[in-house]
Design a protein that fits this description.
By secondary structure, the chain is mostly helical. Helices cover 64% and strands 7% of the residues. A three-stranded antiparallel sheet has the order 1-3-2.
């Protein structure tokens, strides 16, 4: 389960792009993957999951097998498996069967951030229900009840704003995609 590159390997050159594009700087891609993964770790994601996610995100196809991920990141299959398990549980990647093979491949979703925020909406609804119960059980006039009540109001506000934000993003994304399609014609 070692995350360390093989002895003598330069860690920044371990992540290889899946494109034959000779203009792509492999080292720059590797540095991006490691830098973004580090920032995801700083935000609370597990280290190997962050590296696997960043590697998938940086691949042209957005789809890689476990073996390809292990090779690019210079890690064991067990490390990739654990990372994929976590990323699948939080719906940041999906598992699919490689056509004509028994091997699985893993896909990063093009709208993964939108989907992650949309799922938060469901969590907020559950939290609001629990917080309401907390306010009732503690009494809304007690210091703890007021504190929990303010938390409840914050989550209600956040949920209301999130719905509008996601709608505005869909409109913006659709316009951006239409503009790119028009430019490609």
């Amino acid at each position: 389960m070692s995350e360390q590159p093989q002895q003598g390997a330069d860690r920044t050159a371990d992540v290889r792009p899946d494109s034959a594009d000779d203009k792509r700087d492999d080292e720059a891609v590797s540095q991006f993957v490691e830098r973004f993964a580090s920032q995801l770790v700083d935000a609370g994601m597990q280290r190997m999951s962050a590296r696997v996610f960043a590697c998938l995100l940086a691949s042209d196809s957005g789809v890689l097998t476990s073996a390809e991920l292990g090779e690019r990141l210079q890690v064991s299959p067990a490390a990739v498996s654990g990372a994929i398990r976590y990323l699948s549980q939080v719906d940041m990647v999906s598992r699919e069967r490689e056509p004509g093979s028994r091997r699985d491949r893993y896909r990063v979703h093009s709208d993964q951030w939108y989907e992650a925020l949309a799922r938060r909406d469901n969590a907020l609804t559950r939290w609001e229900g629990t917080l309401r119960e907390g306010v009732e059980s503690l009494g809304e006039d007690s210091p703890a009840g007021r504190r929990i009540g303010e938390t409840l109001v914050f989550f209600e506000f956040l949920q209301k704003e999130l719905a509008g934000l996601l709608q505005r993003w869909r409109e913006h994304r659709d316009q951006m995609r239409a503009d790119l399609e028009d430019a490609g014609r």
